[in-house]
């Protein structure tokens, strides 16, 4: 039997939607029993949400003042202890999981499988390499623990209706003090979260200024969509870093992705190839984005966006 | 700040569109252009800027890979690194093994700061820095977009899903860098000449006491599923129409 530990990401009492996707991934491992571990200062409300995910058997709460912020060095030490008796440890491929999970793997002395996208057996998995230009199937040593990050865009969220038990677990150990949280900054918006939104409108370098990016935001708001950006747009300061989509930004799988003034570099496409429908608006008919777009419009964005906004504005 | 160690990996240049071999045994690498991993170039640039800002730290570039990785280390020396070490290994190793090798060097060299890329664009693992920090029992600051040094510590701004996070870490520490930390300099011809005289030592995993354990076996390499080519619409009205028919707007 497989015993699977999922590292549960949460923030301010809210469980990250990536957790329910990790549960679906874990559920694909034959004969698995799923436990979600939550570290924090007070994980009560996140625990209730985790316990309600269908397929989860147990929720472990590790509440400590030192866990108030997700510092990898602090969390990894505890998760390495919790991992005893588990055959698999899974983290989400979010910035939280990418930071933390390899540190756990190293403490456990095992390799990590990054961006796990499909489960073939308890120790056989698929993952992308070379910005998604190749997919490899890897087999791990059955005698060792499997540690992996789950490419959340590859899995649907598990449903609700679960009734897992919630236990509080004390992890008695001195924790490192060499890493201290100072603060976070985010351009908080009322728009849907980019990683989980059903619709996303992204702008590229062609927008040419932060001011012009309002065109993207207006269209996004009309559609109830999240807003994204290419790296070029973020580098140029037109949009904040958390909006970047792609190999080194967010990997997303919305129902609808509208790329406006984005050329379609391979690193950008890596982030959107799981989108159901891709729409591209670009004035260059040769732009590579048209090779992957389901619907393409060759046009100047400044001419067509206002009209599109009118037509979708219901 | 006396010494900064930077890990630079030789990888397929990011402009190359990598193709899978027809027999699913791997990707085609014969004759393709190889470069320093783009993130590692940024890591090296940051080390050089810290040096040039007055700390005068020694910048040590290290790489693990085939003998030809000396080319990338020469480039690193031409950019301004003082010294380089190649851990020569003809077989690619897993990030954990690379981390063990860098740990052995870190113990020997005692750097105040180790800079790595956040990920190598070949394996896209995003593991090595975190693993080194764990094995070394030192702080990690991943995905850095700003590094500010103070005596004995560093304040690092990190690119995270929610935006930007700032943490403070005691030195020595491991920092992995993101794309917006800086823009690497171009190498000038006289620097390439000068770099030829800089020391480049070659060692092996065995000499460092590291075993190249393979824990994950790659059994198949396949091309990704291709998306079907779509349609072109002639104007916005038709676009809106198509999207309405698909129930998307
Ligand atoms: C290691 C590495 C990682 C990277 N990671 C990412 C990543 O995560 N995400 C990412 O996006 N990129 C990433 N990149 C960068 C990537 O290679 C491209 O440089 C980037 O995606 C280009 O952004 P862009 O399409 O907005 O700009 P450009 O390539 O400059 O394209 C602009 C497009 O706009 C069109 N255009 C111009 N004016 C108009 C107009 N008026 N109306 C309509 N169309 C117009 C042009 O025809 C062009 O196609 C990475 C690169 C590297 C090396
Ligand atoms: N073989 C290697 N040689 C030099 N540096 C490496 C090597 N492998 C990994 N690294 C460093 O670790 C970072 C992350 O790599 P990875 O975990 O493989 O994605 C890279 O950006 C490099 O800085």
Commentary on this structure:
- The complex is a heterodimer of chains A (314) and B (249).
- Chain A is α/β, with parallel strands linked by helices and 314 residues long.
- In chain A, 25% of the residues lie in helices and 30% in strands.
- Chain A is built from 9 helices and 18 strands.
- In chain A, the strands form 4 sheets. Chain A has a 7-stranded parallel sheet with strand order 7-11-6-1-4-5-12, sandwiched between helices.
- In chain A, strand 9 (124-129) and strand 10 form a beta hairpin.
- In chain A, helix 3 packs across helix 4 (95-108) and helix 5 runs parallel beside helix 9 (301-312).
- The longest helix of chain A has 14 residues, at 95-108.
- The termini of chain A are far apart.
- Chain B has 249 residues and is an alpha/beta fold.
- Chain B contains 6 helices and 13 strands.
- In chain B, strand 8 (153-160) and strand 9 (163-170) form a beta hairpin.
- The mean pLDDT of chain B is 97.
- The interface between A and B is large, with 87 and 80 residues.
- Bound molecules: flavin-adenine dinucleotide and adenosine monophosphate.
- Adenosine monophosphate binds next to helix 1, strand 4, helix 3, strand 6 and helix 4 of chain B.
């Amino acid at each position: 039997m497989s015993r699977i530990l999922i590292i549960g990401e949460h923030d301010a009492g809210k469980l990250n939607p990536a957790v329910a996707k990790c549960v679906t991934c874990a559920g694909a491992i034959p004969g698995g029993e799923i436990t979600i571990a939550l570290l924090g200062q007070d994980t009560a409300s996140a625990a209730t949400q985790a316990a309600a995910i269908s397929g989860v058997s147990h929720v472990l709460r590790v509440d400590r003042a030192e866990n108030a912020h997700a510092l990898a060095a602090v969390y990894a030490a505890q998760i390495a202890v919790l991992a005893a008796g588990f055959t698999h440890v899974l983290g989400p491929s979010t910035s939280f999981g990418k930071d933390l999970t390899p540190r756990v793997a190293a403490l456990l002395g095992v390799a990590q499988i990054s961006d796990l996208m499909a489960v073939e057996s308890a120790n056989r998995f698929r993952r992308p390499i070379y910005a998604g230009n190749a997919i490899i199937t890897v087999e791990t040593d059955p005698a060792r623990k499997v540690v992996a990050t789950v490419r959340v865009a590859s899995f649907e969220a598990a449903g609700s209706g679960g009734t897992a038990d919630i236990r509080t677990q004390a992890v008695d150990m001195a924790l490192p003090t060499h890493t201290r949280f100072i603060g976070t900054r985010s351009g908080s918006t009322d728009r849907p979260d980019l990683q989980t939104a059903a619709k996303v409108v992204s702008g590229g370098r062609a927008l040419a200024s932060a001011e012009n990016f309002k065109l993207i935001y207006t269209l996004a708001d009309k559609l109830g969509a999240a807003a994204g950006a290419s790296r070029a747009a973020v580098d140029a300061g037109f949009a904040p870093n958390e909006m970047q989509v792609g190999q080194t930004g967010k990997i997303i799988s919305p129902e609808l992705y509208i790329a406006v003034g984005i050329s379609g570099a391979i690193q950008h496409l890596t982030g959107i190839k799981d989108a159901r429908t891709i729409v591209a608006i670009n004035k260059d008919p040769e732009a590579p984005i048209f090779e992957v777009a389901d619907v393409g419009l060759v046009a100047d964005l400044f001419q067509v966006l206002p009209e599109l906004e009118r037509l979708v504005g219901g | 700040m006396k010494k900064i160690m930077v890990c630079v990996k030789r990888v397929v240049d990011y402009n190359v569109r990598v193709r899978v071999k027809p027999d699913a045994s791997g990707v085609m690498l014969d004759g393709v252009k190889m470069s320093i991993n783009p993130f590692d170039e940024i890591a090296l640039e940051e080390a050089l800027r810290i040096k040039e800002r007055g700390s005068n730290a020694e910048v040590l570039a290290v790489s693990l890979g085939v003998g030809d990785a000396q080319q990338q280390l020469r480039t690193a020396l031409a950019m301004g690194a003082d010294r380089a070490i190649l851990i020569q290994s003809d077989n690619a190793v897993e990030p954990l093994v690379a981390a063990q090798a860098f740990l052995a060097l870190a113990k020997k060299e005692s750097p105040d700061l180790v800079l790595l890329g956040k990920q190598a664009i070949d394996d896209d693992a995003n593991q090595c820095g975190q693993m080194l920090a764990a094995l070394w029992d030192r702080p990690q600051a991943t995905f850095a977009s700003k590094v500010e040094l103070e005596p004995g510590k560093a304040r690092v701004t990190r690119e995270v899903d929610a935006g930007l996070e700032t943490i403070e870490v005691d030195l020595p520490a491991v920092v992995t860098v993101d794309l917006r930390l800086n823009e690497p300099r171009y190498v000038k011809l006289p620097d390439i000449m000068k770099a030829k005289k800089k020391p480049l030592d070659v060692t092996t995993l065995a000499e460092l006491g590291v075993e190249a354990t393979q824990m994950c076996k790659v059994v198949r390499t396949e091309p990704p599923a291709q998306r079907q080519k779509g349609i072109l619409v002639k104007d916005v009205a038709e676009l809106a129409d198509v999207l309405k028919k698909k129930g998307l707007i």
